[in-house]
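=== RUN LOG ===
request id: a7f3
mode: sequence -> structure
chains: 1
length: 626
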Amino acid sequence: MTQVTERGTPLSAAPRSAGRRRSPAAAACVVGGAVAAGLGLGFLAVLVVVLWISSPYPDSGPGGALHLAAGLWLLAHGTELVRYETLSGVPAPVGVTPLLLVALPVLLMRRAARLGHAAEEEDGEEVLPASAVFSAVLCGYLTVGALATVYAAGGPMPADPLSAAWHVPLVAVLAAGGGVWAARGRSLGPLPPWWPGGVRRAFTRPRYTLALRAGAGGALVLLGGGALLVGASLAWHGAEVQGSFLALTGVWSGRFAVLLLALALIPNAMVWGAAYGLGPGFALGTGAAATPLGFTGSPALPRFPLLAALPPEGPGTPLTWAAAGVPVVAGLAVGWFAVRRAREVSYGETALTAALGALVCGLAMAGLAAASSGPLGSRDLAAFGPVWWATGAAAFAWTLLLAVPVAVSVHAWRTRPAKGAGAADPAEDDRWHDSGVREVRWAALRRAAGTLIPDFSSAQAPLQAPSQTLPQAPPRAQSQAPLQAPSQAQPGAQSGAPPRSQAPARASAPASAPVAGPAPGRTEAPAEAPRPEEFQVHPVPAAPAAPPAVPVDAPAAPRRPRPVTVAQGFSLDLTPIPIPAAAATPAAPPSGPAPAAPTAAPPGPPLVPPASGVRVMTRRKPDPGA
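=== RESULT ===
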């Protein structure tokens, strides 16, 4: 007997069919990676060719422009280029990568990985695992990268092969990993089992999720502060910046190229500004550095608009010391984002989360400082930009010293008891995650309930003398009797009597008639105890001349519930409760003329018009942490 799969194919043919489906999927992922690299190369090639065409004095042909475009594409990955045409004749490396240019290959590679992972499913079945998609996209991208490295070697600024051998794969791996992770829903699972047990316990999911958020928030605050410092310096040295921009070239195509280069270097300037505010500053060659404490050395800087906005040489001033406010705000941000809105979190866990957030912020700033710096030449310009390890250490120290006390203080403030609140049950109080608002909610609930619930003290007088307002019918013993056989409970069912719903209603006795007790041999059903979470309010209207006639079998008209929101998480449910009319007991027709059948009143509370009861119910949202 041949076994088949859910799709109806033989089980022996399933591996072969899966293999046939995996081959085109893997090929599509490889092509996607190659297309992502080709799109980046094509964009830069078009830009360089347009600038070459618009230049009035081109020093090379279109081949040289295409070689330069390939070199710029490799520079966008962090690869160092080598400039051989120098005044001294010594080859000068160019390693400062415009960070805005890095966004081009990263976004294209990430999109290719996401599309490859989305196309791996065929009719709901996974064709390729995530690791296979990642490897296939990476293979296609690195193939084009190797060809671009070989092609750029014949241009005016070839790439360093050793630098390209690890920079291009590093950027591709990070971008492809981010794309596959985003396609899988950005899930943060536990750490691998080969990590030490203490590290895995420290990085539990809620903790390191908050740490990542706090560290990212601190890094963004530092970058924003750096951008603010750069903008203020550009505005302060506006005349020098304008003169440097106009002195570089006199044609519009050259000025457009300088403007594009300055825009591509703005993220680098933001990182340098953040490093300046943190304290280590940045190097302007081997013998010069700019810090808030002063500008030391005399660097030989090229003429460029962004470099014209540097602080003046000499010791620092109170205006430069004010840059220390940037890491202070970053530390406050890390401490604020590291606090969880839960009472069961201890102060130690809050402090540990803030410390991990400071570590994440330090690592992020160290990576950004390393990516934004590099050499701009040989000798004096061999070191240009912030030192990565000093910037990362300063960011970690600033945020650690400020984030931990801020996080603990914010946690203590959020978990403080409310003013004037009595001693609460600890078991009940632990079930509340948003502490400090329970008493406020209950107070608002009591105030709203006091305006909606009538005063029972004024309603006691009518309730004690119901016979003075409305006539009350005697209770029907048969309606409270247990279910019996048809021959005993309904004697008229076999003698051709009409059913209970069609039988005429019995005339109600006057109010002064004695109340009949239960039938002999029958027990009266016990009254249902009121529920603790709801109660019924029966307002007693003014005594009418005669009760309105309501058919016995007429259903009560449904009314729409009227929920009233009292406070966040609480509501008053004012739902009308229809009072069902008791069924009439069949009786023998009277000998005289049949009197008019008044409305039968149900046993229990005083007779009120149907559907006049109001149920007031308080509701509380379920606590997810209970």
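=== NOTES ===
The mean pLDDT is 74.
Residues 292 and 320 are 5 Å apart (CA to CA).
=== END ===
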